[in-house]
Amino acid sequence: MTGRIPAGVARLVMATLALMGALAIAGAASAGAEVIYSNAASPLPGNVVSEAFEATQTGQFGGAVEFAGTARKATSVSVVMSSWGCQSGSWTGTPECKTTAGAKFTWPITLDINELGPGGSVGPLIASSTKTFAIAYRPSQNNKKCTGEAAGAWYDAASKACFHGKAVTLSFSVGRVVLPSKAILSIAYDTSDYGTEPQRSKAPACLPNCGYDSLNVGLTEPANPEAPAPVAPSVGADPLPEDAFQNTDYAPYFCDGGAGGTGVFRLDAGCWTGYQPLFTVKAQ
């Protein structure tokens, strides 16, 4: 054996080494990402309090966040959602909610990152990412363990509790966009009657079990809903803990009764204490 490597093998070896080097760099970059904001619980509970879209005539919803540390090249943003849709039937249990184990629906969801403008105004768009997700339907109802006020709910063995919705986490890659110290994070998607492209005339076949009509944005929950107090994030801060940002067509769903306008994404000030959308942001 001469110890010489045939030219074709040599090229393969070099290509393999180059690929391994690229993967090592990518792995190092991923490993270097740190959480700069999070108000989502870990581990994720069976379900969370949430803000509906179809039921509240909403097309976009979000909140203001303040990032911790000095890392500002965002790598990913995740949001906790609450899926109330059944594969067949209704979350109320009438008709009976039935879902095949592992069943999912696919739907495009958009994450927007805006600058937080003066006075809580919506500043320029920093980044936007739209991704089609496979989202789990909530499990079938448990008629033995979930009765009375919990009728129609599914049973979560981990927490030994009944829930009408199921918490799911959706993650977006944001291409290492440079973030300011504060921003507005929001989620947007279409439902049968609301959003940028209402779907009722386009997708009548899925009615009445369009999963996106029963999909909500997860929220924090104050310890005492009767006298709500801000729920501090585990990383970062909430610069506007009493406020949210939303675009709804129905005036009464704004804190100001629609005085500031409807059908536009804007500050909704004064009635969201303790209820902020659940986001986690990683950056380098």
What is the total tally of β strands?
14
Q: Please, what is the oligomeric state?
A: single chain
What is the SS-derived class?
Answer: mainly beta
Cα distance spanning the termini: 49 Å
What is the ordering of alpha helices and beta strands? HEEEEEEEEEEEEEE
What does the overall shape look like?
Answer: globular
**Count of runs of 4 or more consecutive helical residues:** 1
Share of helical residues = under 10%
Low-confidence parts lasting 5 or more residues at pLDDT below 50? 1-29
Integer average pLDDT: 91
- Any idea how many domains? 2
How large is the radius of gyration?
22 Å
Q: How would a crystallographer describe the biggest sheet?
A: 6 strands, antiparallel
The proportion of strand residues reads: 25-35%
Write out key terms for the chains shown:
2 domains, globular, single chain, mainly beta, 284 residues
Q: Could you walk me through the main structural features you see in this protein, from its secondary elements to its overall organization?
A:
There is one protein chain. The chain is mainly beta and 284 residues long. The protein folds into two domains: 1-31; 34-283, no CATH class. It is 9% helix and 33% strand. It contains one helix and 14 strands; from the N terminus they run H-E-E-E-E-E-E-E-E-E-E-E-E-E-E. The chain has one helix at 7-31, and strands at 34-38, 50-52, 58-66, 74-83, 104-116, 122-136, 154-156, 161-163, 166-173, 182-188, 215-218, 244-248, 266-268, 279-283. Strands 1, 2, 4, 9, 11 and 14 form a six-stranded antiparallel β-sheet that branches. Strands 6-5-10-3-12-13 form a six-stranded antiparallel β-sheet, with no helix packed on it. The longest helix is centred in the N-terminal third of the chain and has 25 residues, at 7-31. The radius of gyration is 22 Å and the shape is globular.
